[in-house]
Amino acid sequence: MRFEKVLSGLIVLLFVLSAVSAQTLKIVHFDIGQGDATLIISPTGETMLVDAGYQNEVYPLQNWLQANGITDFNYTVATHYHADHIGGFLTLFPSYLPDIAYDRGDNPGYTTATYYNYISAASSVRQTLNAGDQIDLGGGVNVTAVCVNGHLMSGASYTLNDENERSICLLVEYNNFRYVVAGDLGGGAGGLYDLETPCSQLIGDINVFEVNHHGSYSSTNANWLATLDAEAAVASLEDNNSYGYVHPDVIARVDADPSLQGFYHTEEGHNLSTKSIVVNDHVILETDGWIYYDIAGDNYPLGPAITVDVAINPLTVLPIPATGGTLYWDLTITNQETLTLPVTIRFYLDVPNYGEYNLIYLQNFDLAPLPTGATREREIYLPAGAPAGDYELIGEIRDEDEIVLYAYDSELFQKTGAADNLDLSFLAVIDDEALTLTPAAELPFTVTMLSAYPQPFNPEVNIAFSLSDAQEIELAIYDLQGRKLETLLQRQMDSGNHLYQWHAGHRPAGVYFARLTGEGFTQTTKLLYLK
Q1: For 16-74, what is each residue's pLDDT tens digit?
Q2: pLDDT exceeds 50 at position 162
Q3: Cβ(215)–Cβ(250) under 8 Å?
Q4: Number of domains, the chain
Q5: 237 shares its domain with 372
Q6: DSSP string of 296-334, one letter each residue
Q7: Of 42, 145, 148, 370, which residue is the least packed, with the fewest Cβ within 10 Å?
């Protein structure tokens, strides 16, 4: 529960028109009987399959891959060599041979047929994973091997005899989100060495973990739970399994853990916690890494969220002619806490061929509480040589521990091609004349804006939009799966600024999207509802 401690009374309030980038990390915990198989999909589409279950139970995984258009893997990881973790690779590899198949290396003492068949099937792409190795999955997702075969990334090493003890422990990080999967790693009971305690000490606070050893009493010890301080966990197991998982000892420790809120089962198994949620299906986790993560439809906020207001003028897509021009705008950041916040603030444009243009870059800046704030008037000249296309304003505010408190990623303006002529005189319509653009040109350009505030909200949110000309529009609410839930407006609207207040009290807390559709455009903004 890395950030839960500071959520009470603290809110991120973002007065911007576009939500944080919608790119998400997806982690799929497959319902494949008594085996383990976990697929990690980065925002850029790179894939890592951690274990693959029993060979004869891998078909639900195959069906999901086919239904979701996944045709290969970038990486696979065999946490250890038990058949309920590597058997499925024997079926998958003929069609889904990865670029690299990671494991702990050869193990002459382990002589099962499944092990030898795995070695043969993966031989052309096998690579030994060592403690401390890092794998870049793209899109800001990083995977670190915390422990491999009893060797820790700290340099500590243990001599082990049991196959479960040799499990690989992986830490997955994406912006503010942290997740752990560790096969059948032991916690000191049942004759297994306690590797959970030193591993958890190296990892620290996380958000979610996959339950070690399917919920065996030999794992998920009290130190592991307390040190990871996670809000949610996922147990992969089978109904009526012959092992009695999840064992009562683990249930008792989960019930006693004050941080853990959700204990998700792929199937029910034998015992339930007061925190158990039985999914009876694949347990799918999605997160944007900044604001939230979602498990099986349940939404959890990420933090730590301080009350910071960010106002940017102008708040729309701005065209600039091919001949170049100057953009002027104001950036205001206010601290609504009672104490000064030491932060680093950076907002910049990434301009192809020219690099990064900083609007504001304040390192180790003491952001005083209201009425004081940080207000800067900024201008950037975009030369004629900058290529035509969409440009993004990128911004973030970090605290003294380098935790991201606020992130912004939105198309702010367009650099037009040589044949485009645009009249920009009407763009400075928000708050005050914050924008001056030179040189101006001749033809009109339609600008439509969509925003929502406050964020998060409970239970009402203001949805604001501006139309440059009269037109038929639809304003609707969608869920994370893209299903339309409500149509708020569907009619002819005049040009100008409009405000609609959505009352969400009849909806569960979570992430929603407001979508504005008009003549030749669609814009969407994220709505975070916290009760």
Answers
A1: 222 333 489 999 999 999 999 999 999 999 999 999 999 999 999 999 999 999 999 99
A2: yes
A3: yes
A4: 2
A5: no
A6: TTEEEE------EEEEEES-S-EEE-TT-EEEEEEEEEE
A7: 370
**β-pair partners for 491:** 473
In a domain, 294, yes or no: no
Distances, alpha carbon 29 to alpha carbons 53, 64, 216, 301, in Å: 11, 11, 18, 20
SS3 362: strand
The rounded distance, in Å, linking the Cα atoms of 509 and 254 is 24
Q: Could you tell me which of 109, 526, 53 has the C-alpha nearest to residue 299?
A: 526
Q: Helix, strand, or coil here: 203?
A: helix
Under 8 Å between Cβ of 192 and 223:
no
Could you tell me if residue 468 is inside a domain? no
Q: Which residues make Cβ contacts (< 8 Å) with residue 289, sequence separation at least 6?
A: 24, 25, 140, 174, 175, 176, 177, 302
Q: Print the domain residue range for 213.
A: 23-287
pTM, to two decimals: 0.62
> Does residue 117 have a pLDDT over 90?
yes
Query: What's the N-to-C CA distance of the chain in angstroms?
Result: 18
Q: Are 24 and 50 in contact (CB under 8 A)?
A: no
